[in-house]
Design brief:
Chain B: One of its GO terms (cellular component) is proton-transporting ATP synthase complex. Chain B: It is found in: Cell membrane; Membrane. Chain B: Its main location: membrane. The complex is a heterodimer of chains A (137) and B (282). Chain A contains two helices and ten strands, in the order ββββββββββαα. Chain A has 137 residues and is an alpha+beta fold. By secondary structure, chain B is an alpha/beta fold. Chain B has a single domain, classed as Pyruvate Kinase, Chain: A, domain 1, CATH 3.40.1380.10. In chain B, strands 3-2-1-4-5 form a five-stranded mixed beta sheet, with helices on both faces. Classes of the chains: A alpha+beta (137), B alpha/beta (282).
């Protein structure tokens, strides 16, 4: 059996994900990192981007909106404000959020930075949801 | 002596009140369970954020972040978490009582209120309210916490406040809650926690991580406090409404006894009148 590493994703609302995985690919603010079992201790800030979790050759994307990743040789903890598995994503809500954010971006009076973040979050969610759809078909 | 009809009306109105208090008690009990679960579910996150912050603080060569800056204290703000609705016993007034001695008579103190009760109290007594948040005391979400954290951090960074304290109610159980005040900003206690011994690699740098982590820590702390406060509010409401229901029941029992006494007295009087009348006719 291949070596595995424990992955815990913790959000303020709940423990979003907890399982043994073979590899995690995360995008930090400085770029993508791949984490395998036995990784050196690391703390990094994460970008708004789907987290790729690989278990037994199968890949699951998890939508994340920022947060932190803390790595220890046999355990990864991710602290995120929100984390959603593909099947938990409300596509409709993400679509409306995206449209709203785009509107805000066009309107020069509104808070551009905030709208950008909102847009990114919506895009990540849609991307992850997309994966789920393909999987079903 | 009140007449029978008055008492009957009184009984009816007390019964109505009892129904309301009973319903409120049950609603509060159901929500309390959920709020308690939520408060418990947020604990691992809060602890973890604190832990990571501590290990970052232990490793970063020089800790400098606007929110960690300790300044000479000129202006103090109190963030007060209270209820939107009443009928929760002494819940809101306990929090307010916790704050008032600290700000009474001082000109350099202002309050930021969460919940209608605190706002109304401080407004009527002429305290300075810099900002108010209402409408979510029972069911706070992370978004609310983020909004509060943002405005508080802004006030601190701009130098409007040199210290920010948070007054809220810690939930121990449905019947015991305790109003407390903690210092929110500047964040001080992080270095006190034992830094994790393992040597972390920081990506991209410890300072960068700190920049992200500190606001998140603030949000989490506020969110945790909001959840505690909402559980306390519901707990207080449940107990208050429970005893109100008991009191109503007791009152109804007394009124019914009284009512029966009067009814009996009327009947007796009527009988004796009839007997008296019949006697007179003989």
């Amino acid at each position: 059996m291949a070596k595995t590493i424990r992955l815990d994703i913790v959000t303020p609302e709940k423990m979003a994900f907890s399982a043994e995985v073979s590899m995690v690919i995360a995008r930090t603010t400085a770029g993508d990192i791949g984490i395998l079992p036995g990784h050196a201790p690391l703390i990094a800030a994460m970008a708004i981007w789907p987290l790729r979790v690989i278990t037994d050759g199968e890949e699951i994307p998890i939508s994340m909106c920022g947060g932190f990743i803390e790595v220890q040789p046999e355990k990864i903890t991710i602290l995120a404000n929100c984390a959603e598995l593909p099947e938990d994503i409300d596509v409709e809500r993400a679509e409306t959020a995206k449209a709203r954010a785009e509107n805000h971006l066009r309107d020069s009076n509104s808070d551009v930075a905030r709208a950008e973040v909102a847009l990114k979050r919506a895009m990540v969610r849609l991307k992850v949801a997309e994966h789920n759809k393909q999987h079903k078909m | 002596m009140p007449n029978a009809q008055d008492i009957r009306r009184r009984i009816k109105s007390v019964k109505n009140i009892e129904q309301i208090t009973k319903a409120m008690k049950m609603v509060a009990a159901a929500r309390l369970r959920k709020a308690q679960e939520k408060a418990a579910a947020s604990l691992p996150y809060t602890e973890k954020v604190r832990e990571v912050l501590a290990s970052v603080a232990g490793h970063a060569s020089d800790l400098s972040h606007p929110l960690l800056e300790v300044r000479e204290v000129n202006n103090i703000a109190y963030l007060v978490l209270s209820a939107d609705k009443g009928l929760a016993g002494a819940y809101s007034s306990n929090v307010i009582k916790e704050v008032v001695p600290r700000i009474a008579g001082k000109t350099n103190c202002s309050v930021i209120t969460v919940g209608r009760k605190a706002r109304d109290y401080f407004k009527h007594r002429g305290y300075r309210i810099d900002e108010e948040f209402t409408g979510f005391s029972e069911k706070p979400t992370l978004q609310h916490a983020i909004a509060i954290a943002r405005s508080v951090a802004e006030g601190f960074k701009s130098g409007r406040y040199d210290e920010i304290h948070l007054s809220y109610t810690v939930f121990h159980s449905a019947i015991t809650q305790k109003a407390t005040t903690v210092k929110l900003l500047p964040i001080e206690d992080v270095t006190a926690v034992d830094a994790n011994p393992s040597d972390y690699i920081f990506e991209p740098s410890a300072e960068e991580v700190l920049n992200h982590l500190v606001p998140q820590y603030l949000e989490t702390t506020i969110y945790g406090a909001l959840l505690q406060a909402s559980a306390s509010e519901l707990g207080a409401r449940m107990t208050a409404m429970g005893s109100a229901t008991d009191n109503a029941e007791e009152l109804i029992a007394k009124l019914i006894l009284n009512y029966n006494k009067i009814r009996q007295a009327t009947i007796t009087r009527e009988i004796s009148e009839i007997v008296g009348g019949a006697e007179a006719l003989k």
